[in-house]
């Protein structure tokens, strides 16, 4: 059975899971816009780990947005590696299934191959207490994971890193649509490159196809092809997390909708 859930606040993720009828939740372990690492209380972490297992709820951690492992700027790349490592260790403490991190980018004057190699070095240096999932992104001409050819180059580069089998893929439907990738047939095309899809971020898009805009919309209220979106959910064979606007009641309705479509 596919695990269905949504992104929630980190304060009490399991209470929000119960309210939504979710079997998976994703959350940050700190401020996503800052460089400060997670500050976990050991008792809270152990209690969350135990209660999640008892409740049958899968936990996912989203790494901070500031992380850019591809960057050629030492003042960004080096802190990014450190912050990701901190999140990986913290995620392991709570028994998370994985840590999702955006593919990042290089500047317009950089050779993209340097960004791919920076990713390889980052993976090579990580202590994989918990798997990481690279997420496709919506915009940027020099993004590492917007278009399939770049994802192919990224995967080909990092496969020589130690523990590269601990690197998975998170497919965001809004990002794919806004990034210019058709959803119909996308699961097959992605798996031909990565061999896997570990998580789907199931989001509609406020903006048009290939707009490059990362603006999520509620299911059925944006510009994503609804049949293509459902095809991704059905064929990925992975857990599904909503990152759509709204409260638990809204997400509960969307989870029920997905359950009906998957029945």
Kindly describe this structure:
The chain contains 9 helices and 10 strands. It has 263 residues and is of the alpha/beta class. The strands form 2 sheets. Strands 1-2-3-4-5-6-7-10 form an 8-stranded parallel beta barrel, surrounded by 5 helices. Helix 1 packs across helix 9 (248-262). The radius of gyration is 17 Å and the shape is globular. It starts with a strand and ends with a helix. The model has no long low-confidence stretch (mean pLDDT 97).
Mean pLDDT: 97
Helix-strand sequence: EHEHEHEHEHEHHEEEHEH
* Broad structural category: alpha/beta
Q: How many runs of DSSP E, i.e. beta strands?
A: 10
How many helix segments?
9
The CA-CA distance between the termini, in Å, is 10 Å
Oligomeric state, counting identical vs distinct chains? single chain
Low-confidence stretches: none
Strand order, sheet with most strands: 1-2-3-4-5-6-7-10
Strand content: 15-25%
Shape: globular
The proportion of residues forming helix, as a percent range, comes to: 40-55%
From the alpha carbons, calculate the radius of gyration and give it in angstroms: 17 Å
**How is the biggest beta sheet arranged?**
8 strands, parallel, barrel
């Amino acid at each position: 059975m596919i695990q269905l859930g949504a992104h929630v606040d980190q304060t009490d993720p399991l209470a929000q899971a119960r309210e939504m009828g979710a079997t998976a939740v994703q959350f940050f372990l700190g401020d996503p816009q800052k460089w400060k690492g997670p500050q976990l209380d050991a008792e809270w972490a152990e209690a969350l780990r135990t209660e999640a297992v008892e409740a049958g709820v899968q936990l996912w951690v989203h790494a901070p947005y500031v992380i850019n492992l591809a960057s050629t700027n030492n003042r960004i790349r080096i802190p990014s590696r450190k912050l990701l490592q901190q999140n990986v260790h913290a995620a392991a403490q709570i028994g998370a299934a994985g840590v999702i991190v955006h593919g990042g980018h290089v500047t317009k004057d950089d050779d993209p191959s340097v960004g791919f190699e920076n990713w390889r070095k980052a993976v090579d240096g990580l202590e994989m207490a918990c798997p990481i999932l690279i997420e496709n992104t919506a915009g940027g001409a020099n993004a590492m994971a917007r278009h399939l050819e770049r994802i192919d180059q990224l995967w080909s580069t990092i496969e020589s890193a130690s523990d590269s089998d601990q690197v998975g893929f998170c497919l965001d439907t809004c990002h794919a649509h806004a990034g210019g990738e058709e959803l119909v047939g996308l699961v097959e095309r992605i798996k031909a490159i990565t061999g896997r899809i570990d998580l789907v971020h199931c989001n509609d898009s406020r903006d048009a196809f290939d707009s490059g805009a990362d603006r999520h919309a509620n299911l059925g209220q944006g510009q994503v092809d609804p049949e293509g979106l459902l095809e991704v959910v059905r064929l990925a064979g992975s857990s599904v997390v909503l990152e759509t606007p709204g409260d638990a009641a809204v997400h509960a309705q969307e989870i029920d909708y997905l359950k009906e479509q998957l029945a």
